[in-house]
Amino acid sequence: MKEEIGKRIKNIRENMGMTKEDLAKLLGISGQYLGMVEHGKSYLSVEKLKILCDFTNLSSDFILFGKDYNLPNNTKNILSEFTEEQLKAGCDTLQKLALLIKKL
Questions:
Q1: Distances in Å between the alpha carbon of 96 and those of 79, 87, 99?
Q2: At what angle do helices 31-38 and 2-15 cross, to 10 degrees?
Q3: Taking the domains of the chain in order of start, what are their residue ranges?
């Protein structure tokens, strides 16, 4: 479990374009300790996890367990930026793609 949490934290950091040192400074820990966390050798404290959640706007459920219960809300927010015509075209494309995959 430690390894999985560490991998998620590393992926989060890399997706944000941050170095280990940058994220470690934000969390108030050393880069070496963050490296241990990312390699599954240690954990973040609850306080540091909260800082990471607040900074990334990710839930602790996602960081700890890989579960994103906010996905429906996130999806709704993203989709609200598209017009009705764009949504219909996207759904049509997904339907065609699903049929194509089914045939393979």
A1: 20, 14, 5
A2: 120
A3: 2-65, 71-103
Report the alpha-carbon distance of residue 24 to residue 31 in Å, rounded: 5
Alpha carbon distance 102, 86 (integer Å): 24
Q: Which fold has domain 2-65?
A: 434 Repressor (Amino-terminal Domain) (1.10.260)
Structure-token pair, residue 28: 């108030």
Q: What is the pLDDT along the chain (104 residues), one digit of tens a residue?
A: 889 999 999 999 999 999 999 999 999 999 999 999 999 999 999 999 999 999 998 889 889 998 876 666 677 778 888 999 999 999 999 999 999 998 88
Tokens for 27?
């969390």
